[in-house]
Design brief:
Blueprint: H1 2-23, H2 25-31, H3 40-63, H4 66-88, H5 107-125, H6 133-169, E1 201-207, H7 212-216, H8 218-225, E2 230-236, H9 241-247, E3 254-258, E4 264-269, H10 273-287
Parallel strand pairs: 1-2
Antiparallel strand pairs: 1-3, 3-4
Length: 294
């Protein structure tokens, strides 16, 4: 039983190291430059090989495959030797990526790998015996927990990559296509249906009754409607069909921004609050007036 528990613990440590690398693949890949891998392609291949090796050995160790235990012990000695080499090269404190982006080259990292080597060696010295039902259940539970942990890490890594992608792309503007909607610079009598007050812009939002995106964007439209500097009106595809035809609205949701005199300053299809705000921002720039923020 003691050997089984040790196999699960050390196999989990191997799997945890692999999952930590997968959670931040960019940092883990760049950390391999500490060990002399200067080419990006070499680092990608090396990272993939290390992760696959650690996951494969983790499964083998938990399952009680002796060659996997020997290989895991040898791998820890190799890691310790590589870390010692990096220390001798004066790279103390550099990222090593062993257990994620926070891992650093140092004496503690060398000791950690030596201790793991000792743990795997201990597995080989402990009597194994034929595992019973409880042992197999415990092993299965350990593998299941590792699988759940792997899925969690994968989801978090995906969410992080998507977040970084959104930050890199930045907010997108509404889709303004020439030939769709009213002509830019033209004047529309629709301005007479707005209560401008002290507002500098009028915003017409076109929606459809059966449009799910329009329903989801209703809070967004309500948010902008509360801004005193923007006169906003909503036009339904069926209830205001004549307005749709007059302005040649291509579909919903769609927005058109007017100046106080009814001049069409901006237009476009939108799916998010930033895109709807971009219609106002474009109108403000073209009008040369005071910026409008919501």
């Amino acid at each position: 039983m003691l050997q089984l528990l040790l196999r699960i613990a050390l196999g989990g440590a191997l799997a945890g190291a692999a999952l930590a690398k997968l959670a931040a693949p960019g940092h883990s890949r760049d950390a391999l430059a500490t060990f002399g891998l200067s080419r990006p392609r070499m680092r990608v291949v090396a990272l993939a090989a290390i992760v696959c090796l650690e996951l494969g050995l983790a499964a083998g160790v938990i399952a009680g495959v002796s060659p996997a235990v020997y290989a895991a012990a040898a791998l820890q000695l190799c890691f310790a030797a590589v870390l010692l080499w990096a220390l001798r090269r004066g790279r103390h404190g550099a990222p090593c990526g062993c257990f994620g982006p926070r891992s650093r080259v140092g004496p503690a990292a060398v000791v950690r790998n030596v201790v793991l080597f000792g743990g795997f060696a201990t597995i080989l010295l402990l009597p194994g015996g034929q595992p019973g039902t409880e042992e197999w259940l415990a092993a299965g539970l350990g593998v299941a927990l590792l699988g759940v942990a792997g899925l969690m890490v994968a989801v978090l890594a995906l969410a992080r990559e998507l977040g970084e992608l959104r930050l890199a792309l930045g907010p997108q503007a509404a889709l303004e296509i020439a030939g769709e909607g009213p002509e830019l610079g033209g004047r529309s009598d629709l301005i007479e249906r707005f209560e401008l007050g002290g507002g500098s812009l009028a915003l017409a939002v076109f929606v459809s009754d059966g449009c799910p995106i329009c329903s989801s964007l209703r809070p967004t439209v309500d948010l902008i409607a509360r801004d005193a500097r923007v006169a906003l009106a909503v036009f339904d595809e069926h209830l205001d069909a004549e307005v749709w035809r007059a302005l040649d609205i291509p579909g919903s949701p769609y927005a058109v921004a007017f100046g106080r005199d009814g001049t069409v300053l901006a237009k476009g299809t939108f799916n998010t609050l930033p895109q709807l705000e971009s219609v106002l921002g474009t109108a403000e720039r073209r009008a040369g007036g005071v910026p409008v923020h919501v």
